[in-house]
Amino acid sequence: MLRVGGEMALAQITRQGLLTIAVLVAVLWGCLLSERSISWNSKIETYRALRDMRYLRFKRHVEPAAQPSTAPRPSSPLIVGRPVLG
Prior knowledge:
Elements: E1 3-4, E2 7-8, H1 15-62
Antiparallel strand pairs: 1-2
């Protein structure tokens, strides 16, 4: 046992305890880093969605409707069948 100043130690950390603490600290850091990554990605996606909404709104108001094109007139008149007698 570890003695401090001639007195007996109240608690000792075993090798298994130290290993458990190290694993838990690594898991905690992994959670913190993944949370930051998820948060960053969600901000980026939010900004993209807002930009796309602004673009669509701007596009809807700015672009006029297309003018219908006129059909070309034939150079010779069309003859459709024979005249009806009667």
